[in-house]
Each structure stands twice: as structure tokens, then as C-alpha cells.
Amino acid sequence: MTELPKLGVALLPDELPHHIDWLVDGSRDLELQGFHSPNSLLSDWRPRAAEVRKQLASHKGRQGMHGPATVPLASNDPGLRALAQERLGQGLDVCEEIGLTQMVIHSPYIHWDQENLYRVPGRRDEKLSDFKMTLEPIVVRAEKLSVELVIENIEDRDPAIRRDIVRHFASSALKLSIDTGHAFYANRMGAAPSVELFVRAAGEDLAHLHLQDADGLADRHWAIGDGSVPWRSVFEELSLLSSNPRLIIEIRDKTEVPRSCDYLINLGIAR
Fold first, then answer.
1. N- to C-terminal Cα distance for the chain?
2. How far apart are CA 233 and CA 237, in angstroms?
3. What pLDDT sits at residue 111?
4. pLDDT for residue 242
5. Which residues, other chains included, contact 245 with Cβ-Cβ below 8 Å and sequence gap of 6+?
6. Are 100 and 135 in contact (CB under 8 A)?
7. Taking the CB of residue 70, how many other CB atoms lie within 10 A of it?
8. In CATH, which of 3.20.20.150, 2.130.10.10, 3.10.20.310, 3.10.620.30 is domain 7-266?
């Protein structure tokens, strides 16, 4: 990066009016949330999407959404795989309707996998194959829509394992995401390297981050500066990348978004 990276934010549609001036004035990146649950996707979401599109008419920053997150993406059960593909397809429907260019999906890897994937012969390849089979038609459609799918670490302890699926597809429509709080939790539990090493392992495949602070004991989504995530080290690794990932502040209390931004700006590591 030749200049300080620009901060964006994750918001529900109802929260947009409170932050739209900041988003528009700074051409900041936005991640829409609230279209990812089964209840929202199985309802008539199009009027809501139309209202969002109207609110974002003057917004020039990059726009994405959090995709469906309640179905397993690496199941060997054909029924569950079909359901996962249906939900992800519905997420892409939302992207197409609003004009979004990125969708966050969840990694299928859990704590149990860390030891068992490597100790049980063939298990790592089996899980990767199940993940591939789920994503194949979704990646094809995402390519046609010019939507970038980004795989977020959830319970991942190996920061490099998600690159296997990205390298398999070798597609501009499939990249990586890092949630700083998830990575920090995995590290503090003694099972994973530090957060900045998650960034290093992702390398140029990194296209998105959820920025949240935490204490390593839970998935806090605290305001930036209220926890112990090593922000200087994280942004030092980011400065070495040319992939220009979207830096999305994802915190529970959206009234703390300005303070979170100010914290990173005052450190001299973001704008």
C-alpha cells in the first residue's frame, strides 16, 4: 500500500441513515448485514433491497454484504450441500439486486479439525473436496456477476488452510477474509499464531477484514481500542500487501464507530 488504508464499516440497513454522510463523504467501503439470515432470505427482501439501493445512490465506495452463515459449507450430505448452495445463491440474488461486489462466507473449519484433519489419513482431502463441491456452482455464478466471495476465519486455527480452496479455484471470485477478533481468540486459546500472522498467511489473497477488538476470551466485537488486538502489528503486515483489502469495522455498538476510526487514525495507521 502506498498510502494509509481507508476504513469502512458493517451496518444493518436500518443503521445506514446514521452513517451515510460519513460513508459518502469519504467514499468508504460498506458491508451490508441483515440479508444473511434464513428469515430474511425466505421473506420478500426485495423492497428492503430497493430502499437500500436508493439510500446508496450517491455512495462511491465499494459495497458488499455478509452472506448466509447458518448452513455448513463442507458437508458430505447431498441434502445439506443443496441447501447451502440454495442459501448462497439467494445471497448472490441480493448482490445482483443491489449491485454489491463482495459477499462474506464462513470457513467450514472448526477446532476439531486442527488435529483430526492431519491425523486421520485422507480426512483433509475429504473435507476440501466437500467444500469444493459446495462452492463450484456458486463461484461460477459469482464470476458472472463480478462478485467476490471472501472466506472468513471462524474457528480456524491454521491461518493457511483456507488458501487451499482459493488456490484450487484460482478465480478472481474467491478470496480470503480475516476477522481480527476470531483470530485473536484462536491465538489466546493457545491454538493459533498471532493475528498479524493470519494476515501474512493470507498474503495477496486477502480481500477483506472484519476489524473488531477483543480480549481473546470471546467473540466480543468491541470498539477498536477497547481490547488487546495488536493493531500496529496487524497494519504493518497490511502495509506490505497490494491487494487493497476492504477494512470493515464490525462492532456491536455502532455509536462507537467514530471512536473506533479515531483510534486507528490517531495511531497513524489508517484514514
1. 13
2. 6
3. 84
4. 97
5. 5, 206, 207, 208, 209, 238
6. no
7. 12
8. 3.20.20.150
